[in-house]
Amino acid sequence: MDITMGRYGIWRHETGLGPDLAKEIESLGFGTVWIGGSPSGDLRLAEDMLDATDSLVVATGIVNMWSTPADEIASSYHRIAAKHPDRFLLGVGVGHPEATSDYTRPYATIVEYLDRLDALGVPVAGRALAALGPKVLDLAKDRSAGAHPYLTTPDHTVSARERLGAGVLLAPEHKVVLDTDPDAARALGRPAVRKPYLGLVNYRNNLARLGWATADMDDGGSDALIDALVAHGTPEQVAARLDAHLAAGADHVCAQVITAGMRDPEPDLRRLSTALGLT
Questions:
Q1: For residue 80, which phi and psi values (nearest 5 degrees)?
Q2: pLDDT per residue as tens digits for the range 43-102
Q3: Domain locations in the chain as residue ranges
Q4: Contact 118/128 with Cβ under 8 angstroms?
Q5: Structural element, H or E, at residue 201
Q6: Number of continuous H segments (helices) and E segments (strands) in the chain
Q7: 8-173+235-275 architecture in CATH?
Q8: 101 class by beta-carbon count within 10 Å (0-12 exposed, 13-18 middle, 19+ buried)
C-alpha cells in the first residue's frame, strides 16, 4: 500500500462534511480529509467523499472501538479499499472512559480489536491508531501505520516521534481560528476544547504529561492552554503553528478550522491554503 496523505489535511466533524466540501478541500491542495466524531461503521460518508474526488485521501478520526464491531468496520474497509485503493486510511481508537460503562480494559480492548482486524485481513498499512500515551503509541508503532494524536501540541509531537521512531506515520490534529483578536479567537476556541475534552481523564493526563497544571485545565482552561491548543492569528501565523508540528517530527498535520456556529468553512480554508503555499 502507498497512501499519500500530503503534509496538510483538514479534520472536521462528520456533521459538517459532505462530497461538495471534500471536492473543495481537494481543489485547495489539502491531501487528506479526516472524518471526526466517531463515524458510523458503514463508512458511507467516506465512500461518498472518495467517489466525489480524484486523489484526496479520506481518513477516519476515529472509528470508536466500543461502538463499532471490528467485523463491521472490516467489511466497510474492504469495500472502500477495493473501490478506491490507496486513498482510505482507517483510523480507530478506544475513546475515553466517560463515554461508556464498559471502559474497563482499554489496552486489552485495543489489542483484541487489532487482532480481529488482522484476522479479517485489514492491512496494518491501511489503519492508524488514536494514541496519546506511551503504551498506545507503542501499539500504533507495532500494529498500525502509525498514530493520530488529538488535542496535542508540538511538544507532544516531539515526544511521540521519539517514541515511534522513524518511518512510522505521525499525524496530529490541531485546532485553528483565523482571527487576529486573541479574545475573539479564544471565545471561539475555548468551547471546542472545554467540552468535552478538558473533562476527560485521558486528555487531562496527556496535558499533565506535557507539563500543564490542573489549574490550567480547570474552569474552561487558562488562556495559555487555549492558546497552545488552538492556533489563532493571521493565516500566516496559523500556518506557522501547523508547521511547528512538522518541524517537531510529524509527517502530516490536520487542521480543525473552527468557525462561529459551524458556518461555511470554505473562506477560511481558502485563506489557510494560500498561507500554507498549497494554492
A1: -75, -45
A2: 999 999 999 999 999 999 999 999 999 999 999 999 999 999 999 999 999 976 655 556
A3: 8-173+235-275
A4: no
A5: helix 201-209
A6: 12, 11
A7: Alpha-Beta Barrel (3.20)
A8: exposed
